[in-house]
Structure formats: C-alpha cells, structure tokens
Write a structure and sequence with these properties.
Number of helices: 5
Enzyme class: transferase
Radius of gyration: 17 Å
Pfam families: ELO
Shape: globular
Order of helices and strands: HHHHH
Mean pLDDT: 75
Largest sheet: none
Family: Belongs to the ELO family.
Structural class: mainly alpha
Protein name: Elongation of very long chain fatty acids protein
Keywords: Fatty acid biosynthesis, Fatty acid metabolism, Lipid biosynthesis, Lipid metabolism, Membrane, Transferase, Transmembrane, Transmembrane helix
Length: 142
C-alpha cells in the first residue's frame, strides 16, 4: 500500500492527464521501479501461459486469457520505455485489481471444483475484465 501512495494517492496526481515526471527524484525512481517489478510479474505470467501451451493444456487457455497474457507485458514495457510513471501507472493499478479477483476465482475453482456451478465469481471476473477493457480504451483517448 505504501508504494501506491507514490503515484495514485498523491495530492498532485491528476486522474485525467498526468504529465510524465522525467526528474530523478526518489518518488519518480520508485514509481519506475514499481513499473519494472510489475513488468517482471507480467512476464512470469506470460511464461506460465507458454508452458501451458507446451504441455498441451489448451483447455485451460481462453482467448481472453491469451490476450491479457500477451498484451500486458507489451503494453507495460512500451509505457516504461517511453513514458515511465505519469498516467501510465493507472493501467498497473487496474490490472492488479482485476488480477487479484482473477486469482481468487482460480483459488476457489481449485479448492472446491464440485461447487463451481454455485459460485458467481466467474461472472464477476468476466465483468471486471470487461470494465477493465472499457477503462483502458476510454482513458487512452485522452
């Protein structure tokens, strides 16, 4: 939670259009460091998907899953390379929020596979992904 204060909960953070901070102060460098850590996590998730394909576990991979696993590292790398910090950090926050619920769903699926018909988490996760995509598209037009 402390690291989220670096970007999103600052009083000078503009949710509509945040300029890129090219300075080398501690706050800017920490925001960039968090971005690189997030990229490493996204690359690990991509390797997980690659291993699923190599092990012929195609039934576990949906088009949405494949899109997120390939799209996220590319988008995060591009943002870190050309515009670290600033408004690009909103993607990290939204992706992390959706990812948490995604993993809660997977955990519940593994722990109680017989009760998955009763659990509405799959619907919630799908709605969160749709809202996430909509927010990505709508914020990128600014």
């Amino acid at each position: 939670m402390q690291n989220s204060k670096i970007t999103w909960f600052r009083t000078d953070f503009n949710w509509r259009c945040q300029s890129i901070d090219w300075s080398e102060n501690e706050e800017s460098l920490n925001a960039a460091k968090i971005g690189w850590i997030f990229l490493i996590i996204k690359l690990l998730e991509l390797f997980d998907t690659i291993f699923l394909v190599l092990w012929k576990e195609d039934s576990e991979i949906s088009l949405k899953h494949l899109y997120l696993q390939v799209h996220s590292p590319l988008l995060v790398w591009y943002g870190l390379k050309f515009a670290p910090g600033g408004y690009n950090s909103l993607y990290t926050m939204l992706s992390s929020f959706v990812g948490i619920w995604n993993h809660v769903y997977f955990m519940s699926k593994v722990s109680k596979p017989s009760h998955m018909e009763d659990i509405c988490l799959k619907k919630l996760v799908s709605i969160l992904h749709l809202v996430f995509f909509w927010l990505q598209v709508s914020e990128s037009k600014y």
